[in-house]
Amino acid sequence: MVDSILQKSRVRIDFSRYREDNVITEYCPIKTVYVNQLAANNPLEDRWNVGFVQVDGVVSSFLFSVIDGHSGPACSHTVAWALLDYLGASLLKAQKVSAVLEQLENYPPNQPYHIARRLDFVGEDGRRGYAASPPASQMRAFMKQSLKSYLKYIESKGDRDIDPVACLTEACLRLDTDLCSLGHENGGADLKPAEFFSDKVLNRDLLHVLLSGAVGTAGRIFWHNADTVQNQTPDIDLHIANVGDCAAALFSATDGVLVGEMLTRPHQPAVNVEEAQRLAAEHPHEPIGSILRNGGRLLGELAPSRAFGDVRYKWPADRILELIRHMGVEAPTRGTVMTSGPWAGLQPLPEPYLSPPYLTARPEISVLNLTPDKKFLVLATDGLWDVVSVKDASKALSNLQPDECPATTLLKMALTTMPPQMAKVLNSTGELDESLKMRHAASLLSLPPGVARYYRDDITVMVVELTQPN
């Protein structure tokens, strides 16, 4: 039962067909990409995406993301759709930015344009699909215009140093600013609250995005093609950008043993003391015990301290209250509890709310070289990493059988791993045989989405299998 359920949602993207079609060269270090997902929420709030950067016919970059939404899927859906294009734009050289803008201007207005070309795949049901489906038409048009504005901003800077840390940081922050702007130029920073919501018809799709939020891990694998390597072994670079509590791990073969290392740190003050220290430094006139409450949650509510969207923790107080009034929600005053709308059960403002923004989409960036010993890159939402350690993941990846999907294997491991206290109830040593583990997994899978969220989280796992370029 467990295996048959998990196999239904697995995805395999074989890069050999891109080599055969001359889309990528032999210098690309990627063999296969595997993805699997399991919903706990209804609907699933996780998203993922992959794509090539192909501006002038030459592909030398692979972009990827795993996104975990909260308070609904609106923000995660849009971030997964747009983030790769923003990352790709930020890393373009000046002459290529102009070429992309020209293509964007000439592209049919009713069709999406992507700097990161989406990769299609064939699912288990035999149907061809794409990782990230487009958002609603208004939202799609808004993101296309926002990307165009970002490209013009990059073009205005002229020749610049393509520093991956600066570029990826700028891309994440720019996307978040655009998402939280409600369509107003420059985020509407100079508008009064009443003016900010004066449009007779607000973009409801965008409204849903900023009322929800998303964390994510994204990145880029970059390789040099034949015109740059000149018969030398090409350098292969990996850039990882992390916002929130998704995570990426890299697995290397050392003396025949697969060893993993985490490339990211969770932006959760409850487990990351540096995040708590950052918040204390950014809000020096507020006690850190007021900012972090209920087990280290931001303003007592939000577990991650970095995220896209979530204007409830970013906007000025008067603008949030005006937003609530605009939605027609009752009790939009401090100290009362809202009885309807997406924030029902919460006060209109978190308390205390003295010096926003408290939340940021500023990523932490990891930059490293992919040497021949690197075998797997794993990205996953916290639904995996909360129960599966890097050491356990290394063991699972070391024992893969031919044609076994590593993303499904890790997903299954998450379901068969019991919390230590629960395991000791069944066995005093805490050691469980395979039958007990499978019964535990089957019981979790028997819960319908929506109910399952009270027992486990949405889980998305992406595994990039690496190979030595020819």
TrEMBL record:
It holds the Pfam family PP2C. Residues 30-466 form the PPM-type phosphatase domain. It comes from the Eukaryota. InterPro entries: PP2C, PPM-type-like_dom_sf, PPM-type_phosphatase-like_dom. This is PPM-type phosphatase domain-containing protein. It comes from Cichlidogyrus casuarinus. The lineage of its organism: Eukaryota, Metazoa, Spiralia, Lophotrochozoa, Platyhelminthes.
